[in-house]
Amino acid sequence: MARLLLKKKAEIIAEYYIKKQSISIGSSSDNDIHISEQSISTHHCEIYQENNLFFIKDNTSAFGTFVGKERIAIKTLSFGDHIVIGNSSYSCVFLPEKEDAIEDTLILSSMYTLTGIQGKFVGKKFEIIEGEVRIGRDEDYNDIVLPGSIDPSISRRHSTIHHEARRYSISDRRSRNRTFVNQTEIGENDTIRLNPGDEIVIGHTIFRFCTFMKEDFSHPKKSSIFMERMKFPFFHGARISPLIFT
Question: What is the value of pTM for the model shown?
Answer without folding.
Answer: 0.79
